[in-house]
Amino acid sequence: MLAKLHQKALAASLALLFAGAASAAQAAKPAVDMGLAATSQTANATLILKLRHEDQLENLIRQTVTPGNPNFHRFLTTRQFAERFGATDAQIARVQAYLKQQGLRGDVLDNKMVIHVQGTLAQLGQAFGTSIHTFKDAGSGRTFHRPARPMVLPAALAGTVSAVSGLSNEHQYISHRLAIPRPLSPTATTTFAPQSVQPNLKPSGNPTATGIPGNYTVGDVANFYNVNPLYHRGITGKGSTIGIVTLSNFFPADAQAYWDGIGLVTKPNRITQVHVNGGGAINGGSGETSLDVEQSGGMAPKADIIVYDAPNTSGDFVAAFAQAVSDNRADSISTSWGLPEIFNFAALNVDGASVTDTTDVGNLRAFHQVFLEAAVQGQSVFAASGDSGAYDTVRGLGHDQFSAPLTVDSPASDPYMTAAGGTTVPYSFSFSGGPVESIKRESVWGWDYIQNYFDTNFGPGLIDLFSTGGGGGVSVYWHTPVYQWFTHGIRTSEKHQELTFNDPQAGPTTLLKLPGHFRGRNVPDLSLNADPETGYIVVSTVDGGVINGYGGTSFVAPQLNGISALLTQSLGHRVGFWNPQVYFLQNVFGYGRYSAFDTVRDGDNWFYYGKPHYTPGAGIGTLDVANLDAFLRAF
């Protein structure tokens, strides 16, 4: 009897990890149409105008990151981008005239590519040939609005507008952070926790490091990835600006408390907040914003920080990124929010002068144009690759009712985004009196190593940790970018992948079949420690103050953002789009003592294994920041 109770306690403790996924699975049941939404309800939409000369833009981006090219590290201003690649004044005037006819107000950003539109749901529905209804999730009870039928882009806009985002607030993005599962009570003995440390430290310790898994700080990151030589040269991010795009507001005092608490001297009054479309709420996602600022600003303690927060909808996420890029004040930008790429698919059908769309209207395309602008302006952009291993829909839907196809996360999967993956650094562990085991080398992060530990020592079926780990795989939307063409280990998409809903009464229904052998963009690009078991301290008022045992690729994206700020100061100019530069260095110089990268040979993310080359588990590997800095300065 005691053994059964003990097993129940173990299972219940670890099941807390999946509460969010289970709720999402219920919410994913077919929604109930509640009828026409309140016609007077105000909403924001974002129009993405078509780029001019997009092929020339892509070529110019390559030139800005190609050593020896006359345009190497010669980036455009927002005004120059608008003049060369944005919409013409005549095109903008035509769009504005149409919006005015519909009673809508449109504010054009300086890049001449984005128009923020404000109006009522009735006006927006009328303007885009649809009606907007209120829907209620059958499982969660959450209500949202979306078009009741496919949007129709009027002939007046069809030649100018590339995408419309924001007519639906159905999709809410996921924060890519996780915690070590907590015990049921303060006296419970069910915490799975580190027992001792086998550090993976490089020379020159950092005084702000703890050396304790689950309590790591930015000082530990500096030790792991050889950042300290930059600090010793006085490189602290001074003169650079970090941008954070997020979907929750936060308390800036949290970040300062974190920096003060670990003894880090930072630039005073360094945080600026920009609330896009009214800004995000103080809610359960606020801890995400806190950690983003703490990690990025901790890596670059003298950099300025601009936080762009928006409500958690797909349209507002696009709007926040568009604002950050058009403002062009941030030298580097990161986000730690995302959704499975396949949730963003837009089925476009061109019929004469009109375009119809059956989804939330082309968010993949909308993000892509914004990231193109960022790249040509020299803004380095990073996104978390997700925390559901190779099966990104599991955290988005839950795998009790849905199949788990191999999928990647968006916006990390965009070819003009640097995707941040996750590893587990060396440590030793045990659980509830079980044997001590060790991760001896930095490994691809996947909690199947914990699953195997439990199955072996406590019996199979006690817990289900599938598929927690660093996000990675192959896009089935974006083709393999040029910078990955010559990289050993790049994969194509797997065959026989489909998203299926398992209705207990009606049986399985195939919702989407994914293409096999698709030569797609591989994710991630780079990885750093992200396993909550070797995770970090966070200060978050909404989560109770000082908390530990947090991880996820949410940490890696802002860490890379902060590292980019250090490199910006060291180089004396922006780094620009990272991917072509880091893939070139890895392809030409490989791995070794003087390489900018360390290969990740061990572990897996439930499908893709660590290899002595690129792998969709960890990308081209982890960073040696001092060596990367030396290579970049040599150019």
Automatic annotation (TrEMBL):
Leader sequence segment: 1-24
Keywords assigned: Calcium, Hydrolase, Metal-binding, Protease, Serine protease, Signal, Zymogen
Ranges where the Peptidase S53 domain occurs: 215-635
Pfam families: Pro-kuma_activ
Cofactor (UniProt): Ca(2+)
Active site: 288 (charge relay system), 292 (charge relay system), 554 (charge relay system)
GO biological processes: proteolysis
PROSITE patterns with a match to the protein in the record: SEDOLISIN (PS51695)
InterPro entries: Peptidase_S8/S53_dom_sf, S53_propep, Sedolisin_dom, Tripeptidyl-peptidase_I
SUPFAM superfamilies per record: Protease propeptides/inhibitors (SSF54897), Subtilisin-like (SSF52743)
One Gene Ontology molecular-function label: metal ion binding
Highest taxon, organism lineage: Bacteria
Keyword Zinc-finger on entry: no
PANTHER family noted in UniProt: PROTEASE S8 TRIPEPTIDYL PEPTIDASE I CLN2 (PTHR14218), TRIPEPTIDYL-PEPTIDASE 1 (PTHR14218:SF15)
Protein name, entry field: Pro-kumamolisin, activation domain
Annotated source species: Frateuria terrea
